[in-house]
Amino acid sequence: MQLPEQPVAGQPDLIVQQNADRLLAAIRDIEQSTYHRDDTKLPAVGDAPPVPQPGQPPMSQWAVNASGVIKAVSVASLPVGGALWMVGQVDPWALGIIFGSPAVAALAVARLVAKVKDANQATQPVVQNYYGNVHHDERTVTSTTRGVIANNRNQLPK
Length: 158
Description:
The chain is mostly helical. Helices cover 48% and strands 0% of the residues.
């Protein structure tokens, strides 16, 4: 026997249907207010900062040249290493020492050249020209801060 307050079997409950409709309306309202599509054309030239482009990363010309040399040397060493590996007569440690020592020497020379280059580019003295009366104050303020909540009042002595 079916009670009058129960829905008919197979028919949707009216209260459940109303709640579902309210929930879907709220979801649609939220979706509409959380995004905005701006279809205006972007300017060809603007004040946006530059963005790195695909390909070679931005670096100095010296770094580009050095990376090219390193790539060339590494590619050139592959056939020699492959041939020696195929022979199988070479001790891997000896091979590492033979091919590693020129690379270490080249890195040491490059580091030495960089240090000499930096030493030759010494900083120039700072020259400041002042016209009129100048007062130069070289007082030093020291303070001690203790505790969890600290209040600093850095005041110059009079």
